[in-house]
Amino acid sequence: MRGRREWLADGLLGAVLIAPVLVHQVMNGDVLRVLAALVVAAVLVVTVRRSPVVGLLVVLVGTLADGNFVFGLPVMSYLAGLRTERIRVVAAAFAVIAAGGTALNFTVFGTSLGEWFFLAMSLLLLGVFPWLAGRYRAQQTRLVSAGWERAARLEYERRLVVREVRLRERARIAQEMHDSLGHELSLIALHAGALETTPGLAEKQSATAGRIRESAAAATDRLREIIGVLRDEDDAAPLEPAGEQAEALVERHRATGMTVLLTRTGDLPPPAAPTVHHVLREALTNASRHAPGATVRVLMADDGTRSTVSVTSEAPATPPRPAATTGLGLAGLRERLRLAGGTLTAEPTPDGGFRTTAEIPHDATPVLDNPPVEEEMHDARRRARRSLAAAILTPLVLATVTAIGYYPFAVAGSVLDEAAFDAMRTGTPRADLVDVLPARQTPGDRPRGCELYTDGNFPMAGATYRLCFTDGRLTGKERLR
């Protein structure tokens, strides 16, 4: 629904556009045409905002009845470009106008070729050019609006920096606890499990070791549940100890009693090493918790195009005690690899074990959830520049093509030499001028007994000379321009 101000603005615009027509018809005293002009004004008020193309067609049809409608043509064309996003609709309307107008002028109104050319140039100047200017203005407005929106978004983000710094610090601490403390708790549980099953240990000490193992496992699960969700997958995982290599991580697990068989082929590139270490640590920790005493096979390979790490644990000899798990570690790994352009597969094996496999292509493109703002702004600027170029070049090209097509027809056989015109004398029989007079005359209104010729002026090729004959003799000659 339009507001009161919009109706007032559209009404004022309609009144201004129809004013020349009303003044002309009132002076002529034609009441019916005055009423028709008021109806056209009402149509313009209704269509000027939502359907300016319809208003443009109404104005063009109105020029057949009153030439003063032509003052509204550039305004409606500009509004059509400003408020109509579908370029095909307007382009089709102009095509229909050009084809229909040409047919009417030549078949119904008997328009001369020169008059048609003038009307075609008028359509380009008063119709096409304002439409392209309005389209450019619309593109420019959208570009400015997008710029202000981006500025507002950046300002909003700037105000949140202080609060985000604190939240990021908390997330960093939580991540370190999740990655390092959780890992150490799992190792404590593994040591306690080994102590619990040591032969010759007193029953009371064995029970105590069992409670330590259970408490460490429960603490690990609780730690994952509380702070595991705070992980920022865009940040590199901290390594504990700092700078630890994959072989050192395997040795630390072997020291706890785990059987870990490592196979390595190729050298991992430095960019992939942190991700491989992260995957290996998570997979070994899960194997120590869910498959105690089982053999774990680790394969790290690099073929020059991708790095692969696979951790496979056999089925445990005795099923582990059920424990509540959150699964956040594997979910975080999967998302981390997705953002890096890699993949993670975690699934049971046919023999009851479990395999975790990660692949990291060297030339992987990181996944972006949203396109960069700079790219959006660049595209908007490019569209605005294209609209400006179209607004300037399209009328020029159309006018040039039309002129080039019209000019040969206008001047063919109708050019009178200036020296021959100056040499003509009144009273000379026309039969004596046959050799210097062109074969055809230039189109245009001429008095009875007179002939019009051109000097070949471009692009209109309008009438330049007028020769009048009476009883076959030259009675007057006139230079028109």
TrEMBL record:
**Carries keyword Ribosomal protein?**
no
Lineage of producing organism: Bacteria, Bacillati, Actinomycetota, Actinomycetes, Micromonosporales
Record GO terms (molecular function) = kinase activity
The record, for InterPro entries, names:
HATPase_C_sf, HATPase_dom, Sensor_HK_TwoCompSys, Sig_transdc_His_kin_sub3_dim/P
Species source reads Paractinoplanes hotanensis
Histidine kinase/HSP90-like ATPase domain sequence ranges: 275-362
| Protein name per the record | histidine kinase
Keywords from the UniProt entry: ATP-binding, Kinase, Membrane, Nucleotide-binding, Phosphoprotein, Transferase, Transmembrane, Transmembrane helix, Two-component regulatory system
Write the Enzyme Commission number(s) for this entry. Answer: 2.7.13.3
Where are the membrane-spanning stretches?
A: 31-48, 54-75, 87-110, 116-133, 387-409
The record lists the catalysed reaction(s) as: ATP + protein L-histidine = ADP + protein N-phospho-L-histidine
Q: Name one Pfam family in it.
A: HisKA_3
